[in-house]
Amino acid sequence: LILAACGGANGSDGATGAGGNDATAGQAATQRVIKAGIGLNEDHPEGQGLLKFKEIVEQKTGGKIKVETYFAAQLGDDQQMTEALKAGTLEVTVPSTSPLVGTVKEFGIFDFPFLFNSGEEADAILDGPIGQKILEKLPEHNLVGLSYWENGFRNLTNNQHPVAKLEDFQGLKIRTMQNEVHLDAFQALGANPTPMAFSEVFTALEGKTVDGQENPLATILSNKYYEVQDYLSMTRHVYTPFAFLISKSFWDQLTPEEQTIIREASIEAGKYQRELSRKADQEALDALTKEGMKVNELSDAEKERIKQVIQPVIDKYSEQFGRDLVDQLNQQLAEIRKQ
Ligand code: TK8
C-alpha cells in the first residue's frame, strides 16, 4: 500500500492524489504501509519475529514506513498469501518453503527427510550460496525473497497410538503440507497422507477427518493441538524453513535506501526469530507433557529403518529438482560437518 500523506479521503490515490487541502500539501511526503500476514499466532516465534521486523522498520524509517501485522492466517493460508503478494494486494508474508514448491520447485530440496542434523546446519545452507540461489528464482514470479527464518524440526502427533517404529505408520491418516515430497514420504512409510492448508488442520484433527499431523513443537503448543491429539512422537523427521517474501511490485517502488532498511530488518528480525524458535522448541516439550500429551522417542535403529524406506523418494525428487543442486547441497553439508 502506498498512501499519500496529503491524501485525506482520497488517500489511496497515491502520491499524485488530488489532496492539497491540508498542511502537508506540496511536501510530497509519501507514507508507505506494509501489510504483513502470517499463518501462525502472535505468541509463536514467527509472530514475535514479525513484530521485531515491524519495530526495526518503523524505527529506522522514523515511522515513514508502517508495518501492519496480521496473524493466524487471518489473510489466508501460506499459498493464498503468496498469491496475494504476486498480485500486489499484500506486501509481506513468511510462509513455510514447502507449499512454495508450486512456484519454485527447488525449494523442495529442503523437504528431504533427515537432511539437516541441527538448526545451525540449516542456517549455513540457507544463508549460503544454495539458499540464496533458490531465492533468486523468485523475482520472475513477482516475489522477492529477503531471508530465511526458522519453522523448525517437525514431530508427529496423532490420537491412535505412539509411533515408535516403522510399522506404527501403517494406515495412519496424516495431514501433510501441500508438498509432494512430504506426501510421497508418508506414503512410502505406509501412512495415509492428506495434503491440507495449515488453517484447516485444527478442525480436521478435532473432527477426526485425519488421525494426526506433524509440525514443530512450538506450533503444536501455540495452536493447541494437544487439546485434540494424545500422542507426540519425537520423529524430528524434517526441518522446515520459512522464507521471508515481499511483493516485487511493491519492492520495485521503494528507494534503494528503503530496500536496504527492509532487507536488513528482515535479516535482523530473522536472527532474533531463530533464537526464539530454538528456545521455544526446548521449552515446548515440558509444556506439552504438562498438557497431558504422551511423548515417546524413536530409537536410532528405527530411525535408520525409516530413512531406508524414504531414500527412494529422495532419489526420485533429486532427479526432479536437479542432480547438480542436490550434489552441491550434500557436498556443502559434508564440509560443514567436517568443521
Ligand atoms: C503456517 C505454516 C505452518 C506449517 C504447516 O502458515 O503448514 O504445517 O508448518 O507453520 O507455514
TrEMBL record:
<keyword id="KW-0732">Signal</keyword>
<dbReference type="InterPro" id="IPR004682">
    <property type="entry name" value="TRAP_DctP"/>
</dbReference>
<dbReference type="GO" id="GO:0030288">
    <property type="term" value="C:outer membrane-bounded periplasmic space"/>
</dbReference>
<dbReference type="Pfam" id="PF03480">
    <property type="entry name" value="DctP"/>
</dbReference>
<dbReference type="InterPro" id="IPR018389">
    <property type="entry name" value="DctP_fam"/>
</dbReference>
<comment type="similarity">
    <text>Belongs to the bacterial solute-binding protein 7 family.</text>
</comment>
<protein>
    <submittedName>
        <fullName>Tripartite ATP-independent transporter DctP family solute receptor</fullName>
    </submittedName>
</protein>
<dbReference type="GO" id="GO:0055085">
    <property type="term" value="P:transmembrane transport"/>
</dbReference>
<keyword id="KW-0813">Transport</keyword>
<keyword id="KW-0675">Receptor</keyword>
<dbReference type="InterPro" id="IPR038404">
    <property type="entry name" value="TRAP_DctP_sf"/>
</dbReference>
